[in-house]
Amino acid sequence: xxxxxxxxxxxxxxxxxxxxxxxxxxxxxxxxxxxxxxxxxxxxxxxxxxxxxxxxxxxxxxxxxxxxxxxxxxxxxxxxxxxxxxxxxxxxxxxxxxxxxxxxxxxxxxxxxxxxxxxxxxxxxxxxxxxxxxxxxxxxxxxxxxxxxxxxxxxxxxxxxxxxxxxxxxxxxxxxxxxxxxxxxxxxxxxxxxxxxxxxxxxxxxxxxxxxxxxxxxxxxxxxxxxxxxxxxxxxxxxxxxxxxxxxxxxxxxxxxxxxxxxxxxxx
Length: 268
Prior knowledge:
Elements: E1 16-18, H1 21-34, E2 45-47, H2 48-55, H3 57-70, E3 109-111, H4 117-128, H5 131-140, E4 152-154, H6 155-162, H7 175-182, H8 185-202, E5 208-209, H9 210-221, H10 228-239, E6 243-246, E7 254-257, H11 258-267
Helix pairs in contact: 4-5, 8-9
């Protein structure tokens, strides 16, 4: 099964075209102008749309402009690996571990090369709605364009994440680190979450939204802790049938406890 050599996906196979010598040379020229390490040969396959975007001079100019702005971005991100300094150019943005290029199977490292990559990852995050997805969303919220920032990812992490599997064992913390982490940041996040629970109980007569609760939790811990999707899941798991989270068109989701839900929604 052929994959596009630019986006590494095999979806939309009808638009895959086989490269000839001239086409591969055009991509090689664009790769050099972008500062990428994309190497293609005649006979390989690419999506027509990916090739047009990748070799478009205007796209290249915009890409390099963003790249220069974001080149030195470094952020501290939440999750099990948040104690170390994270850099999109040095670490896999999916697992948070250093991304070293080598030939070991499963350890392939790739650059984000398409503008819609972030959109697709966010979609998977929403579908998974778990701890790993929350970590990735936290990283992506610190950057506007992973493509322009030369963000890296392990191919094994990408496959596992998109197929609803766990972080590959090779990029998971050691048992000792896991043990330490279980008493560290995740435990701290749980404490902040319980504070949110108490706040909700004490203000259940108000019109409280998920966004307000997320902002309040982030203010408490000084960084992005939970996404809106993950906080909804945590609240539902905690309160079970005693909570009602209602989506109203054009407004942030309203959170109410069952006892006051009817009164609040009628007044909203």
